[in-house]
Amino acid sequence: MSFLSSFRHPAFLTTLFGIAGSTYLLRYHMIELSEDHEARMDELEGTLRGHIGLIEEVLDRLEGKASEADRGKKMTEYYERRQRDEKKNS
């Protein structure tokens, strides 16, 4: 029995296709999970930015720096800016 004739054996082919298929499905599943995770982290980042804006407004009011017209301004400014902070290469 030569090496090439083992490729015709049904058990070998079944094993080969099983490994290839499961590898493809696991890769697809991992990509899908990473995209879902990325979307959740973006949503969380936007929420945290809104909370940071609220905290800064409260601090400004406690320190007497903010007026009535400034209320909600920082919170909406931070909350609406949902993109990532990219570090600039200098």
Q: Fraction of residues in helices? A: 55-70%
Per DSSP E runs of 2 or more residues, the count of β-strands stands at 0
**Main sheet specs:** none
Strand content: under 5%
Note the total helix count.
Answer: 2
Our measurement of the CA-to-CA distance between the termini, rounded to an integer number of angstroms, reads 65 Å
Query: Domains counted in the coordinates: how many?
Result: 1
What letter string, H or E per element, gives the SSE order? HH
Shape: rod-shaped
Radius of gyration: 27 Å
Mean pLDDT metric: 79
Q: Low-confidence spans: pLDDT under 50, at least 5 residues?
A: none
Determine the structural class based on helices, strands and strand pairing.
mainly alpha
Describe this structure in words.
The chain is mainly alpha-helical and 90 residues long. It has one domain (9-80). Helix content is 69%, strand content 0%. It has helices spanning 10-63, 73-80. The longest helix is centred in the middle third of the chain and has 54 residues, at 10-63. The termini are far apart. Residues 66-90 are annotated as: Disordered.
